């Protein structure tokens, strides 16, 4: 049910208020899209949810799976099952994706009071997930993200999602300049990994991404607030008319 509950969230950077009272509720099993013009605060919202420290929360509450999220350090938010895609993924020379994931999965297990994965079971699980998202083993044995193309980085990210099984994946695709292949990889990953007990928030200003992912709920974020929430038909309206009518509605106080 209510996996994520955001109430009147305000956040600032360098004393400048960016989020001005966000209310949002995401239930388990749902895919939500957050759209909005550049500078609206979309990436700020994902940064605040995952605990990036440059932003100061000045008001409001965030509950995740019954826990007060804002009280948890960023590492624990990840261990609680929040996954944030990176617009610019880090490169880690000398560390393969498989080793990176082994560490991440075992940290998650430790947090839950479970022993580390036995090596053979871990590899079996990795092979299953590889098949599921159709990723090449060569990619997994290379240093993480080093020299990866945009599409390869996205593939890798979707694979990480498949292995870590987050309760909530936040995919912020706004400024990443994804080409159509990379968009398709993200979309098919989100579709394949959709389950009744996990949720996804897809943040984008490209309507195109939503040609491939069908969201259950669509929100428009504008000037630090969610000013509209509707079903997937809202995507078509935005595609047709852009954001200007929403700006006008907000300006006229509707
Ligand atoms: P969006 O993702 O919707 O394009 P952002 O969350 O990136 O919007 O930015 C919202 C506002 O916050 C913009 O006015 C932007 O200039 C400002 N902002 C974002 N990050 C920083 C930062 N690190 N320092 C100062 N201002 C920032
Ligand atoms: Mg931006
Ligand atoms: Mg952004």
Please give a handful of descriptors for the protein shown:
254 residues; alpha/beta; Rossmann fold; 6-stranded mixed β-sheet; 4-stranded antiparallel β-sheet; 9 helices; 12 strands; globular; binds adenosine-5'-diphosphate; binds magnesium ion
Report on the architecture of this protein.
The chain has 254 residues and is of the alpha/beta class. It has one domain: 3-Layer(aba) Sandwich (Rossmann fold). The protein contains nine helices and twelve strands. The strands form three sheets. It has a six-stranded mixed sheet, with helices on both faces. Strands 2-1-4-5 form a four-stranded antiparallel sheet, covered by helices on one side. The chain starts with a strand and ends with a helix.
Total discrete domains: 1
| Helix content class | 25-40%
Query: Strand tally, please?
Result: 12
What structural category arises from helix and sheet content? alpha/beta
In short:
The strands form three sheets. The chain has a six-stranded mixed β-sheet, sandwiched between helices. It has a four-stranded antiparallel β-sheet with strand order 2-1-4-5, with helices on one face. It is globular and about 60 Å long.
List the helices and strands and how they pair.
Blueprint: E1 2-13, E2 16-27, E3 31-35, H1 42-50, E4 56-64, E5 67-68, H2 74-79, E6 82-84, E7 92-96, H3 97-111, H4 119-133, H5 137-141, E8 143-144, H6 150-164, E9 168-172, H7 180-193, E10 199-203, E11 217-222, E12 225-230, H8 233-241, H9 244-251
Parallel strand pairs: 3-10, 3-11, 6-9, 9-10
Antiparallel strand pairs: 1-2, 1-4, 4-5, 7-8, 11-12
Helix pairs in contact: 3-6, 4-6, 6-7
């Amino acid at each position: 049910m209510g996996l994520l509950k955001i109430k009147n969230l305000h956040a600032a950077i360098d004393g400048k208020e960016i989020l001005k009272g966000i209310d949002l509720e995401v239930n388990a099993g749902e895919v939500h899209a957050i759209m909005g013009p550049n500078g609206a605060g979309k990436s700020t919202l994902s940064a605040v949810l995952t605990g990036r420290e440059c932003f100061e929360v000045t008001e409001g509450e965030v509950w995740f799976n019954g826990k007060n999220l804002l009280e948890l350090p960023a590492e624990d938010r990840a261990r609680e099952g929040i996954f944030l895609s990176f617009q610019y993924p880090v490169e880690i020379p000398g560390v393969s994706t498989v080793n990176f994931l082994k560490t991440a999965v075992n940290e998650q297990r430790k947090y839950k009071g479970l022993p580390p994965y036995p090596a053979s079971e871990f590899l079996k699980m990795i092979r299953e997930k590889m098949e599921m998202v159709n990723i090449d083993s060569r990619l997994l044995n290379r240093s993480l993200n080093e020299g990866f193309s945009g599409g390869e980085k996205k593939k890798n990210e979707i694979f990480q999602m498949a292995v870590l099984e987050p309760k909530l994946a936040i995919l912020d695709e706004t400024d990443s300049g994804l080409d159509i292949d990379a968009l398709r990889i993200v979309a098919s990953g989100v579709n394949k990994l959709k389950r009744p007990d996990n949720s996804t928030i897809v943040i984008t200003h490209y309507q195109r991404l939503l040609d491939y992912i069908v969201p259950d709920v669509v929100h428009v974020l504008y000037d630090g607030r969610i000013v509209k929430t509707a079903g997937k038909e809202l995507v078509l309206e935005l595609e047709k008319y852009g954001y200007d009518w929403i700006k006008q509605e907000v300006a006229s106080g509707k």
